[in-house]
Amino acid sequence: RKVLVTGANGFVAIHIVDNLLKNGYFVRATIRSESKEAHLKKLFSKYGDKLEFVVVPDITRDGAFDHVVDGLDAILHTASPFQYDVKDPEELIRPAVDGTLSVLKSAIKAPGNIKRVIILSSSVSVGLLRFNHEYTEEEWNDSAIDDVKAKGKESNGLVKYMASKTLAERAAWELYRKHKASLPWDMVAINPPYIFGPNLHEVDKPENLNTSSKRWFDLFFNPIFSDQELYFAGNWVDVRDVAAAHVAALEKEEAADERIVIAAGPVPEQEFIEAAKRAAASLGIKGVQTGIKKYDPANVKNSVIYSSKKRERILGIKITSVDESVRDTIADFKERGWIP
Ligand code: NDP
């Protein structure tokens, strides 16, 4: 079976490609420019012509994917900007929304075989800032959209990103529902929180890491976080689990028309540092920062919580532990010669 992966060179997407190829799928990968092809080709050379490439320079253009969707069984759409440092929120919203709609419109027009379209959304389109509340997939982060509408460029970077993901996922479901009766395919949204883990994609230095991986690099090696920030329990998931979730979502009939949060649970930032210290000791690495000097777990007040019921019921994938994920990530940083 042949699956399209958009933005295949990204941190998350390349793990999805890896998992698909390991599971015997043919993969058609879209990238923005030809220069992104060589790394993927080399990394997956053993799979030969099971991996093919199409360059789509502007995903927001109507019809951009028309020539890409022939002969596919499924589509996984991941390409979307994940950054906080933009001024105009439209820099995030336009590619997120128009890119998603452009993929879906081409899938709607496509002849025949497509059975499922999976959108890589985010838990931020469910909600993030109501701490200690257990979010479920019934919820939508409309407050981020309202905030950006009201404040525009003055909105916080995280909120701009949250609005882009919420608007894109809402637009996807709206278009899908409008055409659903006549479509041969159904749709799934995967909604992960912060994704961490070893990098397979092409990165030359830590400064150029994708947003979430850079966060772990800084958390372990740059003492830029306040104690208050380190006592915050954000939610997270390992990138390999997200990849496995995509493949499971392709294969499980019951995933049809569902949004599914895939999250490992809230973890205080300091606990990631503690895991990094343990990993560093076993890997013979120095330089992991101390973080909070006298860490007391009782001081953790704010947690970001998502229900795992749907993930367990429908996808049933395993969840990687903090220690395993942190160790593998640090081992990867070490191999790249990045440990300060
Ligand atoms: P990366 O930055 O590593 O990858 C982003 C991918 O999207 C790249 O292929 C990139 O292409 C492409 N892309 C970015 N902006 C545009 C644009 N304007 N037009 C076309 N393509 C674009 O990020 P991640 O792998 O972390 O993110 C991938 C997806 O996962 C995103 O949809 C993100 O919202 C979602 N996600 C990520 C989480 C995380 O913690 N990492 C958490 C939850 C969801 P290029 O390399 O050419 O710029």
Automatic annotation (TrEMBL):
What would be an example GO MF term here? oxidoreductase activity, acting on the CH-OH group of donors, NAD or NADP as acceptor
Superkingdom field = Eukaryota
Instruction: Report the Pfam families cross-referenced here.
Output: Epimerase
Q: Does the keyword Nucleotide-binding apply?
A: no
- Occurrences of domain NAD-dependent epimerase/dehydratase (ranges): 3-262
Kindly indicate whether the keyword Endoplasmic reticulum belongs to this entry.
no
The record's listing under Gene3D superfamilies reads: NAD(P)-binding Rossmann-like Domain
The record's listing under InterPro entries reads: Epimerase_deHydtase, NAD(P)-bd_dom_sf, NAD(P)_dehydrat-like
What family does this chain come from, according to its entry? Answer: Belongs to the NAD(P)-dependent epimerase/dehydratase family. Dihydroflavonol-4-reductase subfamily.
Can you name this protein?
D-lactaldehyde dehydrogenase
Q: Which organism is it from?
A: Thelephora terrestris
